[in-house]
Amino acid sequence: MENLSGLRSMQRTIAQKIRLEDAPDLKEVKHIGAFDVAYAGNKMVCAAAVLSYPDLELIEKKTIVIDAPMKYIPGYEAFREGPGMLQVFYDLEFDPQILIVDGQGVSHPFSAGLACYVGTELERPVIGVAKKAVKAEVDDDRVLVDGQVRGLLVKTKEHANPLVVSPGHLITIETAAEFVKKLVIPPHKRPEPLHIAGRIAKKEAKKLLSGVQEAE
After folding, report:
1. pLDDT of the chain along its 216 residues, tens only?
2. CA separation (Å) from 20 to 28, 37, 55, 106?
3. Which of 43, 72, 102, 151 has CA 20 to 30 A from 173's CA?
4. 11: exposed, middle or buried (C-beta count within 10 Å: 0-12, 13-18, 19+)?
5. In whole angstroms, what is the distance from residue 186 CA to residue 159 CA?
6. How far apart are CA 16 and CA 2, in angstroms?
C-alpha cells in the first residue's frame, strides 16, 4: 500500500518550487522534447521524442521499459510516470529547451501535476497537455483551481474537445498555450512532439504484449 501522506508531502514540496515565469532559453528554442507512456501488463514503456523547432522534424527518439513504480492512484500520477520520464530524459543526446508531457501542470488540484514534477526535477520549462480538467472549473477558455487561472483550453482540431494546457515550471500559461498551438500539425490533435512520443510508446508496448502472448 502506498504512503499517501508521504506522497502528499512531496506534492507540497513540488508546489513550493514551481516558478511560472518564462525561462530565458525560451527566446532561442531549437529543440522540443516530449514524453509519453504506455503499459504492457506491469511494465511501463516511457518514450521520448525530440523534434527540431520550428520545422518539427524528428531528430531523436528513445524508449525504456521499467516496472511501474507504483499502482495507479488518481491525483498521484506524477509519482507513477515521472521517474521513468526522468530516466529516459537522461538517455537523450539532444538537450531540448522545452519539454511536453501528457498530463496536468499547475491545473492539478494541488499544483503538483506530472509537468510540475518533471519540471522541478529537471529545472527546465515543461508544459502539461491533458485531455480534460481534473477537479477544476472552466470559465470560457480558462481553467481555474481555487478561483485562480491555472491553464487554458486550446482548440486544436475541429469537432474535437479542446486540450487542457497548463505550465509545469519555468513557463507562463500564455506562453505554454502559444507553443502548443504552434506545435500542432493537422489532422493530429496533440502537439506533434507528444503525438510522436505517444505513438512510439504504444508501438513498443504492443510489441511487449505480443512477446508475452507468444511466450505463453
Report:
1. 478 999 999 999 999 999 999 999 999 999 999 999 999 988 999 999 999 999 999 999 999 999 999 999 999 999 999 999 999 999 999 999 999 999 999 999 999 999 999 999 999 999 999 999 988 989 999 999 999 999 999 999 999 999 999 999 999 999 999 999 999 999 999 999 999 999 999 999 999 998 754 443
2. 18, 25, 27, 9
3. 72
4. buried
5. 13
6. 23
Report phi then psi at 98, rounded to 5.
-130, 145
Residues in the chain: 216
What pTM, to 2 d.p., does this model score? 0.95
Whole-number Cα distances in Å, 78 to 30, 141, 198? 27, 25, 17
Pairing, β 137-139 against β 43-52: unpaired
3-state helix, strand, coil in the chain (%, to 5): 35, 30, 35
Query: In this structure, what C-alpha cell is assigned to residue 150?
Result: 491555472
Q: Give the domains, in start order, of the chain with CATH numbers.
A: 10-215 (3.30.2170.10)
> What are the cell numbers at 149?
487561472
